[in-house]
Design goal:
Layout: H1 2-8, H2 11-14, H3 17-39, H4 41-50, H5 54-79, H6 87-90, H7 97-114, H8 121-146, H9 166-173, H10 180-206, H11 217-233, H12 235-272, E1 308-314, E2 324-326, E3 329-333, E4 338-343, E5 349-354, E6 364-366, E7 369-373, E8 381-386, E9 392-397, E10 410-412, E11 415-420, E12 439-444, E13 450-455, E14 471-473, E15 478-482, E16 498-503, E17 509-514, E18 530-536, E19 539-547, E20 552-557, E21 563-568, E22 583-588, E23 591-598, E24 609-614, E25 619-625, E26 635-637, E27 640-644, E28 649-654, E29 660-665, E30 675-677, E31 680-684, E32 695-700
Antiparallel strand pairs: 1-32, 2-3, 3-4, 4-5, 6-7, 7-8, 8-9, 10-11, 11-12, 12-13, 14-15, 15-16, 16-17, 18-19, 19-20, 20-21, 22-23, 23-24, 24-25, 26-27, 27-28, 28-29, 30-31, 31-32
Helix pairs in contact: 3-5, 3-8, 4-5, 5-7, 7-8, 7-10, 10-12
Length: about 700
């Protein structure tokens, strides 16, 4: 039961950004409705006196009362989302304005329940002040914190304090994501007040006499005599009505009590894990749309510069896998063929399993299983390990004309997708061997049996390697991946340099988009695709974006493969472009900002570059140049871009300005992908002569 509550408390999965954005404005509308009717009470009373028919007057006044009370009730009802575990630090909420506003409306609701605010002018004035103050605070939060700095309520906020203006100040210090400390303190105070309001309502429902003014003895005696007379004259009817209504009210408020207890359980968990639940990162891409944006972390642009090393696990071998995190443990692989599970908080090893052959790809965790793809050397094999102890559950050999796997497993609907191709440490090397081909293979994730495979070769023209991992669109039941150059220079090799879409269930080709002629050289789509929606020239598309080693980031229509646009990143030359996975956030609905890493920038002749691209208006917001080349993928945390380079530098970059927030040097290059979970950033290192420094580092604030 607790696990169910905690899953429900996960705002990022239960409340999508669009739903949350809608609710935020629905709350504003119900507030304005309630306070407007409260302020217009005098008008409604004047109109009431003009009615000559009693029925018409009763309907007029009843309509007024129902609308006003409904506005207050719905404000509190929908406002509970603002106290939901995980929302504070996964979505931009104006703290403490929004939560204080809901508490004031909750107090107003309790006041309406306990006393007759319609007949008592003083209490009616208090009610008016509570509603006015609540509405004012809530609208201040929307106008000056979430909407004012042009950061939509569903968008990932960026840190604007560097602009030095009022909007930047408001967005930096009163936005729940940019100031998680204030968010947590706000939660302590406002949730306690909300809980108190609920308890008062429950007590009143069972013991209303506790809130009534004391009666004189004469009045009490008179009331008692009247009551007994009524009971005696209508005993049977009254017993039925009172018992029925009493049971209904008791059931209603018992249900309310259970809801409050459930919220309290979630709240306790929230206080233990400020991001709302144990923060996980279970795949290379983090999520199905491959955004690599980690909402559930306490690290952000305000405190990333305080990151300090917490522990280190040496591997004496390259680590090019992106460490993944599940339920307080971190999992990663190395080129010695070892798979590790370690405690996230202290780095103590839980278990270690050696699979003999080098592993370059990232583990995927699902179904209580750690899925591992062997490669780049050795058998093309997928191995399923027990997440609990690392024991082998099953192994599946993936038929391939080339003995390597570079991509990481993707699991969807109990199917596992893995791409193959490339051997001898070089993926997709041109050797004019027309018998070689890459494949995308689907396995049963529970037992490893092959379901289908799609080959990138037609006839004997030679196929293309599949470097990347698959992206999944559940709505279209489709997967997407990129291919490299052909193993031959045959121009008839159709699937070379392509973004390919397949039916996720059958493996049937939906479409493919080829960026180049099949003999164009080393211009692979080696990066894993991103899935997003985008509005271009007034039309909204479901799109897939992927970076190529030709230096361009391509965006194509997810439905038919038509090119929507391509964008040059930096000034990369051929074969020196995009290798790592890009990341993205939404500036507003259907308007993604994409953070793209490029291996080399030929203009500077030295280094890698990260570019912040807004493709909807073909704008580059900023470029950041690194010390070394970039093989690494981008990781996003609130307001911050994380990336590593081949020279071992870890960078934290402001997502809004491109300014450097942190740089930290490791002895070994960083190329596997950086993870963020809870209060930790986990960094894999490789590609260096200082082999005793190779391994995985955990940093924390």
């Amino acid at each position: 039961m607790i696990n169910i509550l905690l899953q429900v408390s996960t705002a990022s999965s239960f409340f999508t950004s669009s739903i949350l954005n809608t609710l935020i404005f629905v709350i504003a509308m119900t507030m304005v409705l309630a306070v407007s009717l409260q302020l217009a009470r005098g008008y409604f009373l004047r109109i009431l006196k003009k009615f000559t028919l009693r029925v018409a007057a009763d309907i007029w006044w009843l309509l007024y009362i129902i609308l006003k009370d409904a506005g207050v009730f719905l404000t509190v009802f929908f406002g509970i989302i603002l106290f939901w575990p995980g929302v504070y630090q996964s979505s931009p909420i104006a703290v403490p304005f929004a939560q204080l506003a809901i508490v004031l409306f909750a107090i107003a609701l309790v006041l309406m329940l306990i006393v007759d605010t319609e007949e008592d002018r003083t209490k009616n004035n208090i009610l008016t002040l509570l509603m006015l103050a609540g509405t004012f605070l809530y609208l201040i939060g929307i106008i000056f914190v979430t909407e004012g700095p042009l950061t939509a309520a569903t968008a990932v906020p960026t840190v604007s304090s560097s602009t030095g203006n009022f909007w930047g100040f408001a967005n930096t210090y009163f936005n729940s994501i940019n100031n998680p400390a204030l968010a947590i303190y706000t939660f302590y105070v406002t949730f306690s007040a909300l809980l108190l309001c609920g308890l008062v309502a429950i007590v009143y429902s069972f013991k209303p006499e506790l809130f009534s003014a004391p009666e004189s003895k004469a009045v009490a005696a008179s009331n008692e005599t009247t009551r007994k007379s009524i009971v005696q004259s209508k005993k049977q009817k009254k017993n039925i009505n009172i018992n029925t209504n009493g049971k209904r009210f008791k059931l209603l408020f018992i249900l309310l009590a259970l809801i409050i207890v459930a919220i309290f359980v979630c709240a306790v968990y929230y206080l233990k894990y400020p991001s709302g639940y144990k923060s996980n990162w279970t795949t290379f891409t983090l999520n199905q749309n491959n955004s690599r944006y980690q909402r559930n972390t306490t690290i952000n642009a305000n405190n990333v510069d305080t990151l300090k090393p917490k522990w280190f696990i040496g591997t004496n071998s390259y680590v090019t896998s992106n460490p993944v995190v599940s339920n307080g443990s971190v999992y990663f692989t190395d080129w010695n063929g070892s798979v590790y599970s370690a405690n996230l908080s202290n780095g103590n090893i839980n278990w270690k399993t050696n699979l003999t052959y080098a592993i370059s790809s990232t583990p995927t965790i699902a179904n209580g299983i750690v899925y591992i793809a062997l490669g780049p050397e050795g058998p093309t094999e997928v191995v399923a390990l027990s997440q609990k102890n690392g024991s082998v559950i099953w192994k599946a050999y993936v038929n391939s004309t080339e003995g390597a796997i570079w991509g990481s497993p993707t699991v969807f609907n109990n199917m596992l997708y893995i791409g193959t191709g490339g051997a001898g440490g070089v993926s997709g090397q041109i050797d004019n061997n027309s018998s070689k081909s890459g494949e995308m293979v689907a396995l049963n994730a529970l037992n490893g049996r092959k379901i289908w495979n799609f080959t990138t070769m037609i006839g004997n023209t030679g196929g293309s390697a599949v470097w990347s991992s698959a992206a999944v669109d559940p709505n279209l039941n489709s997967i997407y991946f990129g291919t490299g150059n052909s193993y031959t220079n045959n121009s008839d090799s159709l699937y070379a340099y392509s973004i390919i879409s397949l039916n996720a269930t059958t493996g049937k080709l939906n479409w493919f988009y080829a960026a180049h002629n099949s003999s164009a050289g080393d211009l692979d789509f080696g990066a894993t695709p991103n899935l997003f929606t985008i509005t271009i020239n007034g039309t909204t598309y479901d799109a897939v974006g992927d970076g190529s080693k030709d230096g361009y980031y391509y965006i194509v229509n997810r439905l038919n493969g038509n090119l929507l646009g391509k964008y040059l990143v930096g000034t990369a030359g051929p074969s020196q472009g995009i290798i790592g996975l890009s990341a993205f956030i939404y500036l507003k609905p259907n308007d993604p900002e994409i953070f793209i890493p490029s291996y080399y920038d030929s203009y500077n002749g030295c280094c890698g570059v990260v570019e912040a691209l807004v493709p909807s208006n073909n704008t580059t917001e900023w470029r950041f140049y690194t010390h070394g080349n970039i093989r690494d993928s981008i990781t996003l945390i609130p307001g911050t871009v994380l990336v590593g380079d081949n020279d071992g530098y870890l960078y934290a970059i402001s997502a809004s300005t491109g300014n450097q927030l942190l740089v930290r040097r490791f002895y070994d290059g960083i190329s596997g992908g950086i993870s963020a979970a809870g209060s930790y950033v986990i960094v894999p290192t490789s590609y260096s002569g200082v082999i005793n420094e190779t391994g995985v580092y955990a940093l924390s604030t």
